[in-house]
């Protein structure tokens, strides 16, 4: 009897009490390395047996051992919060470029790699840091594609007043060349939570969240960007981008959970029939059972051949991912899942995301037959 009680107490401790204690201010230092496995123009991308998806790609579930990465108190640049990762499969490893904040909440971009998709080793130094006047308060929220062997990273440069979508390139994921803001003179809008009706005010010079289509279609690369509505821009060289000021948005706000804001997630993935599956993040106004202001991740099907500037061909009505866990519902910002990476690896889909603007998690989904 005593043994059973002792065992029960022990199990209870292991199952409930210890994990919840461990979750308080978890730092998750994990594995770090002063050197990075060599990536070059010759490196392979994706696994040889990569299977393109079809729309919709469903069945995402939060990995039960999330978070998989968190702040590291031993390195000041990533000591406060760590979240919002881009992901890509190179040389049979998953690579993450993630946003990390120091104690002054200034963001840098860090690099980590893994051979199983869950257990990551991080590089001790940030790979992109504030260095320019337009990014004094941070280099944030990377998204990455690789085209002709070069990595193209869109990220947000923030100077405390304006967010500006910036470009950087690299061939090894470590050494990045900055090209500065790529969409000057943009006007985005800001949802006005303080007004009783659906209202927006212009946000001059504000741009964010660029997700690039990784193939040239009819001579042009395309990108969907924006931090309230999705807009489109195109380019011939991925460095210089054209857009039309005050253009119509790429996609109307349709679902109840995206009425306040829509923002690109990972770069779109080509489907078996040559369209593109685009994941995105949305913010709702309250109705429909979604917490007011919560960030959820959804999915749309877009057609770059016949509708390169929108609208989407189809959309999934309910989110793929919703804030559910303690790290997601209570954080630096409450009720946030924010995805920026989607890869296929070792027989499943892995979607990497920020949890409550504080930790880094992953959700898995099965491959489609
Ligand atoms: C977690 O960190 C915050 C901010 O540093 C602090 O206020 C809080 O007391 C900490 N919680 C625990 C359980 O240590
Ligand atoms: C790529 O492979 C070629 C042929 O094997 C080799 O000559 C070249 O040095 C490699 N380039 C890099 C950047 O590793
Ligand atoms: C955070 O980083 C910024 C920019 O590098 C630096 O100015 C600031 O002192 C850092 N804060 C801390 C607490 O290290
Ligand atoms: C995680 O990765 C590290 C570094 O590669 C390795 O030493 C460790 O054994 C791995 N742990 C698990 C559980 O796979
Ligand atoms: C970084 O990349 C730039 C541009 O490609 C190159 O000129 C420079 O030599 C590289 N630096 C290192 C340390 O590899
Ligand atoms: C922004 O627009 C103004 C007015 O049209 C123009 O004078 C300025 O050169 C533009 N700046 C850029 C960076 O395109
Ligand atoms: C942008 O549009 C202008 C005018 O149509 C064109 O001359 C230019 O080549 C375009 N630039 C890019 C990078 O596509
Ligand atoms: C990549 O290579 C293709 C095929 O050679 C070419 O059409 C395209 O312009 C290249 N893209 C970039 C950004 O260099
Ligand atoms: C490329 O962008 C320009 C500027 O916004 C626009 O006028 C044009 O229609 C776009 N072309 C395509 C094919 O998206
Ligand atoms: C693809 O190959 C990897 C090993 O390279 C394996 O782990 C994975 O299960 C394979 N995927 C499928 C769908 O067979």
From TrEMBL:
Pfam short name (any one): Glyco_hydro_130
GO molecular function: glycosyltransferase activity
Superkingdom: Eukaryota
InterPro entries with a match to the protein in the record: Glyco_hydro_beta-prop_sf (IPR023296), Mannoside_phosphorylase (IPR007184)
This protein's UniProt keywords: Glycosyltransferase, Signal, Transferase
The keyword Signal is assigned to this record: yes
Signal peptide (residue range): 1-22
Protein name according to UniProt: Uncharacterized protein
């Amino acid at each position: 009897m005593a043994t059973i009680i002792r065992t029960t107490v022990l199990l209870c401790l292991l199952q409930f009490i210890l994990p919840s204690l461990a979750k308080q201010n978890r730092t998750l230092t994990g594995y770090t390395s002063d050197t990075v496995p060599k990536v070059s123009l010759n490196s392979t991308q994706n696994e040889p047996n990569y299977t393109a998806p079809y729309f919709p790609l469903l069945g995402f579930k939060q990995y039960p051992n999330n978070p998989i990465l968190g702040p590291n108190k031993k390195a000041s640049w990533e000591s406060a919060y760590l979240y919002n990762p881009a992901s890509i499969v190179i040389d049979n490893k998953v690579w993450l470029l993630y946003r990390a904040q120091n104690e002054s909440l200034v963001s840098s971009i860090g690099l980590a790699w893994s051979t199983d998709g869950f257990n990551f080793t991080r590089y001790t130094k940030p790979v992109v840091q504030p260095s320019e006047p337009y990014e004094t308060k941070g280099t944030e929220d990377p998204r990455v594609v690789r085209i002709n062997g070069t990595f193209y990273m869109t990220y947000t440069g923030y100077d405390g007043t304006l967010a500006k979508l910036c470009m950087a390139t690299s061939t090894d994921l470590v050494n990045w060349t900055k090209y500065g803001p790529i969409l000057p003179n943009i006007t985005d809008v800001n949802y006005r939570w303080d007004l009783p009706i659906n209202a927006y005010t212009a946000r001059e010079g504000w741009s964010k969240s660029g997700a690039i289509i990784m193939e040239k279609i009819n001579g042009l690369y395309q990108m969907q960007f924006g931090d309230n509505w999705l807009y489109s821009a195109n380019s011939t060289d991925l460095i210089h981008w054209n857009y039309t000021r005050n253009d119509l948005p790429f996609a109307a706000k349709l679902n109840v959970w995206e009425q306040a804001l829509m923002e690109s997630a990972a770069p779109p993935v080509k489907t078996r029939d040559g369209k593109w599956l685009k994941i995105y993040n949305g913010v709702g106004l309250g109705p429909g059972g979604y917490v007011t202001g919560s960030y959820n991740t959804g999915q749309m099907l877009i057609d770059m051949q016949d509708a390169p500037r929108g609208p989407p061909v189809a959309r999934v009505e309910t989110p793929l991912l919703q804030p559910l866990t303690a790290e997601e519902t209570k954080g630096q910002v409450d009720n946030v899942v924010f995805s920026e990476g989607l890869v296929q690896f070792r027989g499943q889909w892995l979607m990497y995301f920020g949890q409550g603007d504080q930790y880094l998690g992953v959700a898995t989904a099965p491959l489609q037959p």
